[in-house]
Amino acid sequence: MIVAITDGNWRATRAALAATGDRFAGLIRAADPAAPATRHWSVADTAAHVATLAQACASMFGAAEPPVHDLDALVRRTVIDTVADFNRTVLCRFAERDPGVLAGRIRADLGGLLAATEDADPAAAIPWLGDSRVPVAGILAHLLNELQIHGRDVARAAGARWRVPPREAAPFFELFLVGVTHYGYGRLLDGHGPWPRRRVAVEFSSPYTATRTLAIDGGRVVVEPPGGPADVRLSFDPVTLNLMLFGRVGRARAALGGKVVVRGRRPWLLPAFLRIMRLPS
Questions:
Q1: Are 211 and 204 in contact (CB under 8 A)?
Q2: What is the pLDDT along the chain (281 residues), one digit of tens a residue?
Q3: Cβ-based neighbour number of residue 239 at 10 Å
Q4: Between 238-245 and 136-158, two packed helices, what is the crossing angle to 10 degrees?
Q5: How many Å apart are CA 80 and CA 102, to the nearest integer?
Q6: Looking at the whole model, is its pTM more than 0.90?
Q7: How many other CB atoms sit within 10 Å of the CB of residue 31?
Q8: Among 140, 151, 114, 116, which Cα is nearest to 25's?
Q9: Rounded Cα–Cα distance for residues 107 and 111 (Å)
Q10: Strands 200-206 and 232-236, bridge-based pairing
Q11: What are phi and psi of 233, to 5 degrees?
Q12: Which domains does the chain have, with CATH numbers?
């Protein structure tokens, strides 16, 4: 089983999504909507972004209308390097910025999504950005991560506490990142420049996830079971890894804090790997 989808982590992801959605909704109600949450977005903009994602995910399962009428076309043509353009387009067309209204919409769309997927096969493939495919469990894990990352952004703006347990951050790697790589990432990684000249394999391990190796080989990225040859062996705290991948924590800080530990025969190959296997920040 390459993508470690189990009844346990499926149920845990669903429970964490519901609880984190409630926490996020309460947080945006209490924060100053005009306060800057990121370099480009206020608290209100960040809340609207999360609301569009919750609505978009719910619409994939018939639990809501899409946040914009041409969502399918936007999703198909978006790749990692154009996610910012996708977000700008959707936010420009999505006028709501009232935190109370957005909190209610987020709760409603998360409830609809969870109800619509209650009896779904968590391993079923769903179309995603750039003609990629993701398991149903990965869609929920991705949305959970968005709530966690942007909850941190809003909490920092509000001077509030925002804690994410490592076990609740783990589904992003285990279900989404491994899932989209194995199920087929389509054109998602286009635009990265030349591939490494040699095979680069990175083994990822943590106490909260199944160990997996992601390898760049012959112009493609594949998921391999643990135990094989690896250039880099990376052990990680899931919270810190997610923040690092999305540009909230620097690589040096993650390493110096002992939250991301890099070992192996050729640890210097990790930057080349991350140039290909990158996420929007």
A1: yes
A2: 899 999 999 999 999 999 999 999 999 999 999 999 999 999 999 999 999 999 999 999 999 999 999 999 999 999 999 999 999 999 999 999 999 999 999 999 999 999 999 999 999 999 999 999 999 999 999 999 999 999 999 999 999 999 999 999 999 999 999 999 999 999 999 988 888 989 999 999 999 999 999 999 988 999 998 888 999 999 999 999 999 999 999 999 999 999 999 999 999 999 999 999 999 87
A3: 22
A4: 80
A5: 26
A6: yes
A7: 22
A8: 151
A9: 6
A10: parallel
A11: -115, 115
A12: 7-183 (1.20.120.450), 200-276 (3.30.1050.10)
Residue for token pair 């080989």: 217
- Which amino acid, 28? I
Cα separation of the two ends of the chain: 30
Distance CA 266, CA 62 (A): 47
The encoded tokens of residue 125 equal: 């493939």
HSE, side-chain direction, 13 A CA sphere, residue 48: 21
Backbone angles phi, psi at 34, to 5 degrees: -90, -10
Residue at 61: amino acid letter: F
Q: Of all residues in the chain, what percent are helix, strand and coil, respectively (each to 5)?
A: 55, 15, 35
Q: Are 49 and 104 in contact (CB under 8 A)?
A: no
DSSP-assigned letters across all residues of 194-223: SPPSS-EEEEEEETTEEEEEEEEETTEEEE
